[in-house]
Structure formats: C-alpha cells, structure tokens
Amino acid sequence: MSEVKIGQIEILQIHGDEVSRRDRFDPAPLIQVDEASVDVNGMLGWTGSAWVVDNHHTSWPEPGPRRPLSVGFTSHYEKMRERYWDIPPGAAGENVVISCDRVVLFDDLGEKIIIRGDDREVELLPLKVAKPCLQFSSYMRQLPELGGYEDLRDDLAFLDDGIRGFIVTVDAAVPPTRLRVGDEVFLA
User: Full-prediction pTM beyond 0.90?
Assistant: First the structure.
C-alpha cells in the first residue's frame, strides 16, 4: 500500500491520571500539550517547562494498566456528536487526535500510521481497537451513574470498531521521537 495523507495532528495529550475509574469516566486529568515524545514505552508530554509522564507509560510510578499510545480522529467525534452531545475532540482520552474528514476503521489503518514533521518521522503500528467500556459509554449517554451492559449494548456497539480510537505502538528499535501539533499524518 502506498502512503496516503489523511490529515495532521490536531491534539496531543497525556493522561495526568486515570480517566476511567471503576464507577465513572472523567476526562479532567487529560493535559493537552503542543509537543510530545513517543517510543515503545509510551508518551511524555512537554508542558513548556517540564516533561510529564502519561499514566500509561511504562515508567508511571503507580500500578495500573499499561498500553503504548492511542490515536483517534476528528471525524469520529463528528459521528459521536451526531448521536450524543457536543463532545470536544480528545475527550475520549486519545494521546493523538488527527484531523481527518473521513471515518477510519481498523482495516483502513493498514500496516502503519506515519507521522512526519519538518525533520522527523515516526511510524505507529496499529495493535487493536480501543474498546469502549461501560464507563465511557455511560459518560457519552450523560448518565448520573454507571450504566449496565444491557442498557448500554447499543452504545458499546456504536463506539466500537475504532470510533473511540485505536491502540498503537512504536517499534522497540525506534528511539524517542518528538511529535508536534500540526505534524502531517499518513497511512501506509
């Protein structure tokens, strides 16, 4: 497959803490940054004065789930807005939100997502769909408490297939690479 430009980075953000707790989803711990560093261990965000560790990064000091990175697309937020409410881009918790005018499903990702800046490039390797959970589905429905599986079955199906985003990684041999808002994004 040849490279196809699909957009550019609109949002970079790190999780300053968990967004999905046992009984709720809360995007308040998300910290948007203009620059980040990514490698196989996860993402660090530059706040302008310090590097901050994403809570999914392997060096996060507290126990919890670890995953490399997550990506999402602005077009997916349009679909969510049509069904739910005016959710701001990035509120689903992706590390990288890419401006894109079409829905991107897992099979559309191909072998890699290439992010290219002026003097740098990194390949993100798709691993899996970021599965929607009861917490996020309840948040999207604006429920006052955690909904049950039966009540949220249609929402879980709607938010699946990549609408909530994708989990990706960086090859272990790749050194830490900087990403910046505005970097171009390609599928290959």
Answer: yes
